[in-house]
Sequence to fold (385 residues):
Amino acid sequence: MTHEGGSHHGVGMGTCLLVLSWSPARAGGVNGVVLALARELQAGESYRPLIAVASWSAMELPERVQGIPVIGVRLHDGYGQGAPATLKSAAFLPSDLAGLARVLCEQNVRIVNPHFVGIGGAAFVLLRKLGLYDGKIALSFHGADVTEIEGSSPVVRACWRKYIEAVDVVFACSKALGAKVLKLAPKAKLEILYNGADMEIFEVERKPGTGPKRILHIGAYEHKKAQDILLLAFQQLLDRGMDARLTMIGNAGPKTDEIRRLSVPFGGRVRMLTDVPHEQIPEYLADADVFVLPSRSEPFGIVLVEAGAAGVPVVATRVGGIPELITHGRSGLLVEPDDPRGLADAMASVLTDDAVAHMLASAWSREAHEFTWRRTAENYLAAIS
Fold:
């Protein structure tokens, strides 16, 4: 594909194609990152953002999400593993490549950036080797995608290594996640690209608490978010005589029913909410005395940055990228995962000492304001250009 400057769409800039495997209209952390990056690119003058949903089957897609145009592309990457699946994907490869090449040319794509896309995304590398695409290729990893690769067969991991090492830049949202990527592909051109938050949305006036202590947790109802440990720690606070309330907010997940069942004995002291729109989250942060993230794994933790922007002290676990954000004793309190007693002790330290709460919240608020999406986009463009 020959790049002819800015002749497409009547604009003088090329397109940055952000590739997903699902609709960007769906709630979720990866979508939030992709849409935030796309909005920043749209506000700039370097690249026109375009979201492509790669699928091997028909999928109803919106024309735009948050003002970002959306298209569908065909990638036959969903047949599973094994010889029959490989043969089926190979049979469709010529038509897939032709369709992808046409989209890249028509849209004047200069950057292709798959997010959470399977090994089929290597088709973009193949297009470049065939001379049908001459732009940049970036790969963005978010956490669970790396875990999935780590658990795959040696053959699949070998394919991923070649794919990862063939692209121009590999983005990981924390140093901890980046280390895992380098284990998979030692020659990867790795860049650490921290996520951000919409600071102005979360800068709301805190509501003073006059009744029970207010504990807030936000995270999908899944094993790695450890709401079961949070409930055990909350019970310890109640056993110590603390008057407290716990609000848990999260997208429905595989642990939703279990956590709801575990919450029943607490009666009105535990409020469990599902699928709360993101724009309502600032209201809940404004009504919290402490924010708690007891995760068993966490590549980054955007919600911690949002809590910091809202001026809420945080308690979290010492896992993944969290220690890269929070300094224990200065900008928050960190405990080991799966430790209800340690979690209860840390929450009590914040909830029973206003001076500690104020010190932690003030320090983290200052530091959290460094994590803006604009800075993320600037670092992204610096790495890919």
Q: What stands out?
A: The first strand starts at residue 14 and ends at 20. The chain has two domains: 8-193, 199-368.
